[in-house]
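Table S5 (text form). Sequence records supplied for joint modeling of the two-component complex.
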Amino acid sequence: MALIRKHPGAPAPAAAEDPLVALEGATAAERREAAHRLAGDPSAVGPLADRLDREADRSVREAILLALGRIGTAEAADSLFALLGSEDVWLRNAAIETLAEMDAAVIGALDGALSDPDSDRRIFAVNVLVSLRHPAAADYARRALAEDAHVNVVAAAIDVLAEIGTPEMIPEIEAAAERFPDAPFLRFAARAARRRIA
Amino acid sequence: MTAHDPRSAPVVSDSDFVRFRDFFYRKTGIMFADNKRYFVDKRLQERMLVSGQTLFRDYFNTIRFQASGQELQTLVNLMTVNETYFYREEYQFRCLVQSILPEVTRRKRPGEAVRIWSVPCSTGEEPYSIAFQLLDTWPEVDRYDIEIVASDIDTTVLDQAKRGLYGDRAVQHVPKPTLERYTRRVRGAYEVIPDIRDSIAFARVNLSDPLSTRQFRNFDVVFCRNLLIYFDDASRRDAAQTIYEALKPGGFVCLGHSESMSRISSLFELRKFTDAIVYQKPLSAEA
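The corresponding structure-token record, covering 485 residues in total, follows.
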């Protein structure tokens, strides 16, 4: 019979002494493991974000994003919001996905993200809200609805509220659509949102 | 309008169903067709009654915003059928023999080990099915050493798996000659023969902790079926990292039919074979 039993695997190789050193290691496996080890260390946000900025290997980038998400502090959220302006579509989307899982930490960083002078960044920040497990998520979308001057940010907020809004918010959604009389698609979006949450 | 009687089943309207379905799909990747309405409603109503929430809107807010995610997890468990048996999703075992192993062994010398990891293995039906399938249908079975490692986070099910005792229902899809060859009857049950039981290495593992799985490396194939649907998004990505680390470059991972690695991680390449869609760690990846 060709089946043989062996120990599940070779004994685990010894980890490098300092994960911050290993984060700059020569192999992707070293750097991934360093990122896993730093996932519980809030003081590692800076080095992780710095490495992410220079890292070319996709698997290491995923490990660093996971680590930042696991650290879950407002500082970690800030470092991820900073990526929303990246030209790298993969990195931007991965940052949005990671932020959406960070819940409370994201709330602390949203004020800054929703006030960013770049409307594209504000749209990405609004997009984070739809998956956020936090009761204040809808309030942030309402804020964008009422205050943001850019039609596409308001449209993104309406889309979010179509998912997580409640019937009491319908008048606010319709009022926001009225703020942009030259954008008929906003009224269409508002009607669609009303149908969903009424 | 009449007041809702709290003793009767809570109401799930058409639009509630659609909202829940969209939300559940985003969270789990599982999509319920319209013909599953009764199945979904029944479980939603059950959980609403248990949690004392008569309005769908309140219950929906709970599953979306509860910080612990506990109620959503309970609902996921209810909405997924956690049933295991021999030769479940048998087409993947066919794919293993017909497509995956020929590709894996092209890169190996005869006599070299082929390493397969079944995680979670639950009570053992999956790793034993893999062993049966290889012994019965893979022509190259005697040219390579085959190492099957079976892991689960639950030590109780691992103990059951090691015993290898199963009832009629668990083995109902095993071809009779296979059953006769690889099991024996023990007090009305089917017991996997010692040669096969002893050839599988059972070990506890927590897949969502990449650091605790450092000794699980150099696998050619990982079977990780119907587990990730129970995880939240972050844990799924942890698990994807663990599987990535565990595989050799060019190694394959088989997920359950409702699961998609593409929704979790971009580390793997999609491979469409005749019998199944599986995922592959790129050959160019560092070991």
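Note: Chain A touches chain B through 44 residues (CB under 8 Å).
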